[in-house]
Amino acid sequence: MSKFVPKVYQKDIFSIDYKKIKKMGYKLIIFDLDNTIGKVKDGKCDKKTVDFLNNLNKEIPIVIASNSLKKRVKEFCKDLECETYSFSLKPTLKNIRKIKNKYNLEYDKMVIIGDQLLTDILVGNRKGLLTILVDQVDSYDLRKTRINRKIEKIIKKKYNMKKGEYYHL
Fold this sequence. Notes:
Elements: E1 8-10, H1 18-23, E2 28-31, H2 47-59, E3 62-65, H3 70-76, E4 83-85, H4 94-103, E5 110-114, H5 117-127, E6 130-134, H6 143-158
């Protein structure tokens, strides 16, 4: 299977079966920020998502690992009760390795959830994390992400991945 193909594809973070993830023995969930848990243009996380993630964090530890700069991540996530990692440089393993070591986990006990094949899914598949792709929450992207989206269209076509054809574990 391609390093770009997620193990799971869901509409959004609210559609994922976290109880099943926990039951399967996963110990930590890493969320991407922009267009996964919030819009790129939003200054802070909305109440529904804050409540959801803070409740989830009581069941299974979560962290936010974003390629965005520290100021953006800190402001957006200020109401979240979890650790954040900025400037993650995904698809490199910089912060993913830090998270693994800090929580003393093997990669196969970790989950990564994101909206991009070329960053979130690639870094997760490279190290054996459970990878979950979600639809982007907004159509607006930063310039560098728009370039990635064009490449992702080619990958999705090659692997017959169609928006709305969701699949579970």
